Structure formats: structure tokens, C-alpha cells
Amino acid sequence: MTLFMNKHLNKMMVASGILIVIGLLFLFLGFTNIRNITFIVATIVAIGPILVRAFNALMVKSFSIELLISIAVIAALLIQEYTEAAVVSFLFLFGAYLEKRTLEKTSQSIQSLLEMEPMVAYKLINGEEVEIDVDDVEIGDHLIVRPGSQVPVDGIVVNGSAQMNEAAITGESVTRHKMKDDEVFSGTIIENGYLEIEATKIGADSTFSKIIELVEDATSSKSKTEKFLNKFAQYYTPSVVVLSILVYFITKNVHLAITFLVIACPGALIIGAPVAYVAGLGNASKKSVLIKGGAIIDQFAKVKTVIFDKTGTLTEGKPSVTRIHSLTDIKEEQLLKEVAAVERVSEHHLGRTIIEEAVKRGLDINIPVVDMTAIKARGVSGVIDDMKYLIGNERLMTENNVPITNDTLELYENEQKLGQTVMFISKDSEIVGLISIMDKIKSDAKATIDYLRNQGVEKIVMLTGDNYFAAEKVSEILGIDEFHAELLPEDKLNYIENEQKTNRTLMVGDGINDAPALAMSNVGLAIGHKGTDIAMETADVVLMGERLRNVAYGFALSKQTFNIMIQNTAVALLTVVLLLFGVIYGYIHLASGMLIHELSILVVILNAMRLMRYNDRENVHKNVEFKEDSFV
Amino acid sequence: MIRTQLTTDTLTCPSCIKKIETGLKSIEGVDTVDVNFNVSRVKINHSDQVTADELKERVEKLGYPVKSVRTTA
User: Which residues form the HMA domain (chain B) (predicted)?
Assistant: First the structure.
């Protein structure tokens, strides 16, 4: 019965509409009896599906809007208001139809994301290619991916090379080249080339499945406002029935009582907020800005303080050697070669940076070193040709009684003031050189910060474990209000906790080592999907791409979504109040009340649809100049 | 535990959620039902006592055409 009604809903709606038109013709021609019969038939056709829904909802003990309409229409028939009965039930169906069509539009971007989920994979079995369901792929399977098709699961390239479009994951439409040993992600598409991959993450663990899971959960998690409105509607609907009965007993006017029933329907009130959130979340997901639901949007929109991690967030996180200062007559390259050889023992990223530089310059660093040791938080030591090398920070030098001359110290401090991280090289207790390493500021960092400020962020803070001078330099270039350097992870937590006492905070990190800070902050935002698992779980907002500017985009969009949610709620409340007065003063009757009610629903949906087109591009170019490749 | 995901026609009324939940939970072997209104998807965790087809049939009987079914063990 229900299925039949749902399948033929549109036909019934059209039929009742046509009948109403015919009825109106008879009305003008003066055939009162035929007119009445036509309207009664129109009402019966249209009320069918409404009654079925009202009944179904009652079965699960919920009072639906359909119930209010059913009561009103039946009562209207009883008091022989056939025209009104027909028009009200038709308008309700037509309104529901438009509602469905527009609602589908608002969740379109999310739907299309869900539909992009890979379904099939081509597996290599004994050299033969077999099509299998993506759910049947197992870890270690060798799969073939051809041009134009999607990578079905996450994997490592074992053969071939290709230009990949990773927009499904990162939201950025730049192609990336992938070859042997590179990681590829499910949902990305080969533009040209050919790949054989070995599956590493399958099913729900693959990157694309995680995105989908996250987006789905986001759309079903309710914000405080939504929860309140749902609760409200639960009590509101039955109390409207009670009130309209009261109206009848007081006025003895059935027409007034049922008009009251119809206009008090909480339609726009119930749909106004969710529709705004869904449209906003959908827009964000197109840019691969994953926001975990309406509650987060509310929080995000009210952020006053934005806290950035430095390394890997404001900077590339890929330091490089900028200068090698030889203080003796040893050649620069020779020095680098020996330092890199000793650094082989280091697990620190600065050590790796030095090795990379040596390899890049084509130096052979495989020279014999004895007694290689890594000294925690200080540096490394090792012996080459009976000469003892110490490479590391100032502390390493003083603790080993290596004298630092004033000239060297001055050079060291000057380099630091440029934002460099500087390491000493000592050979048999004499300083023979310095190595400066730096991390490039992301090209869109300045634009992001300016844009955030433009959108009403009051305070921008940078927290880092790095040295004071490096932090100061970055802070100066980017125009940051406040920075704290040489922090331990718990210092960051303390800072956030303290700041939250006065301001709503947004913590932005790369999600690899700042998960606790992301979790502590009112809103935690992780950039990049490299730190996938922890970041995606603890952060409230995940940027799948690398673009820092999307932090500001997410903020602006959340603000806009929040505003539209408030507007919608206001429109809904205002409509109810206006209708109420209209009815009391006799301006509004059953059919016109229904029309205005349905119109208010359409207004809130259309208002929310503005969020789908929301784009910040113009704002950015107007207000903020991009600064390319600024160096620290 | 088997996980089945049904994609239905666009759901329009919030009371649909309750109806589908109650309807599916009454089947022996169904553990959890999660109806996502905004994307019109129903996720069901259930034992092998129930087949995906039975679940689909029940949802259709409740009045919601099912567009696709996906099962993972």
C-alpha cells in the first residue's frame, strides 16, 4: 500500500491538480453540484498518500505533519468546504514534491561524491585479468588500472606509470605523476598511462571509503539547534491538535479551528536548519574540506582565535640546506660529505636533510666512520680518519667543551635571525663550520592569514617546538599576532586550554604529531591525508588536500552556513507568527494559509541552496595578494 | 557480523527514519540499524540468519523503493 502510494505519488498529485482545474471551470460555469463532486474526488485522490503516511507515522508513535493535514482535510469535507479541502491537500502534495526535488539538489554534491565510490577492480590471476567486485579485493592482490578508470583500493605501484587526477581525494585538480613504489589512493583516476598496483588498504580502510564514511556521518550528526528543533517538533505537533480543539470549543467555529491546524504546521521550522547544514557540508566536501557535521559548523563559525602549528602547517615541513659555512680551508663539498657520512646514524629530520643535500650534489657519503652515535636532542658524533666529529646544536658544543669564538657566535646568531636552523660542526674540539637549514613558508600562508582576519578572526597565534629566532621570522613575515617557540607538546595543550577560557579556538596542524592539541581545541583542523588515521579520527575538520587556504575557505563557509541556518529559523518563526495573526484577524483562510506555509518551506530551501554556489574566489583576489614562494 | 548497506529513493519525512529502524530491528538477527536521512542510506549490521534480500524486501514493504544493495562480510 505504502509502496504503491510512493510509486504513484506524482500521478496522484497531477490527477488531483487537473481535477481542481476542472472543478474551477464548473464553478465559473455555475454547475455547483458537478463542481462539488469534482472537488471531492480531487480531495480523495490527493489525501490518500497523506493519510497513509500519517497512519504509518502513528504506528511508530510519532505525530507527523501529515496527521495535522489529514485531520484538517477530513474536517473540511465534513463542514462541506470542498474547494478548500481539495486545494489544501493538493497544495500539500505539490509542496512535498517541490520539497523533495529541491532537497535532492541540496544533497547533490554529497550524493555525487558517494556515487564516485569505486565498484569494480581488475585483478591479475596467473597473468590473466579478471573483473571482480571491489569488496572481494584482498590485501596483496595485484590489480590493473587503465586510463580513465579509478584506482579501486589504496595500493603501491608495482609496474607502469601514469598521470593521476587526485581530485576525488584532495579536491585539487592538478595531475600527479605516479611510478613504481609510489602510493596511489582509491577513487583517484588515471588520466593517461597504465598501472599495476599491489593492494595495501582495502574496504573500509581505503582512503576514499574513509572520506565517504566521514561525510555520511557528518550529514547524520545533528547540531544542538537541530536537536532542539526536533525535540520541539515532537511536542509541538500534538499540542497544535490540542490547541485547535480548544479553538473550536471557544469559538464554535470549525473553519477557524482547522485553519489553525494547517497554518501551525512546523514545516519550515523543521527543515530550515538541516537543509542549510547539508548544503554547506556538500559545498565543503567538493573542495575536500571535510567538516564533521552541523555541530562543528556552529563552532567553526564562532571561532575568534586561530592557532597554527608551524612546521608542516605554515611551512612546507620539508627543510633544505641553504648554506654551508666552512670556517677553515676545508672545501665546502668535502665538509658536507663528511658531515653527511656521520649523519647517517641520525634519525632526526635535520640529519636526513643534510644527507639528501649531499646525495643531491652527487657526493659519495659511503666513507668509513667509526663510533657513530646519535645524541638525543643534541646531534651526532663519529670518527673519520682518527678525527672526532661532533655535529649538532650549541648545547652539544658547550657540553663537550668545544670553544666557540665570538666571530662564530655572531655568525650563528645572524643566521638564526634570518630564520635558519643552524648546526655546528666540530672536528677534534675545534669548530670548522656551520650548516644552515631552513623550511620554506607555504606560498598561500600569507593569503590564508589575511583572509582569516578579513573574515573576522581576532587573534592569530603560532605555536612551535622550533627555535625562537626561526619562529620570530616566520611570524614577522606572516603578520602573526602572537607566537610561542621552543614549546613541548604539553605546553601547546596548556596554551589552548587557557585561550579557550576567553575565546573559541581553532587549532590547525598537520595531524601527525599534534593530535592531542587538535582534540583539545574547540575545533581541530588537520591538513593533508598523509597522517590519515589519527588525524581523521581526532580532528573536527580534515583538509584532504595540501592547500592551506582551504582553512580560511572552511571558516568562511561555516560562517555563511551558520548565518543561513539562523535566517531560515527566523523566516520559519516569522511565518508562523504572521499566519497566526492573519487567521485571528480573518485575512487568512484554509487554502491561503496552506499556500503561505508551503511557500515558507520553499523559501528556506532556496535560501539554503545559495550555499551550494558559495565560492570565495572573488573575495580572495579582491582582498589578498598572493605571495609566491616567500622564504624564511 | 555482516554489514549491508541499502540505498533508497530520497527520503523526505523524518518519521521515515523511525519507521525503517523499527521495521528492520524487528527482524531476528538484525543487530543495529542506522538510517542516514540526508543521503538516503540505511546501514545494517546483522548475522548470517538474515540475507540482504530479506532486508531489501522489508524496506520496500515499508514503502521505500531500494535502489542498490551492498554487502560486506
Answer: 2-67
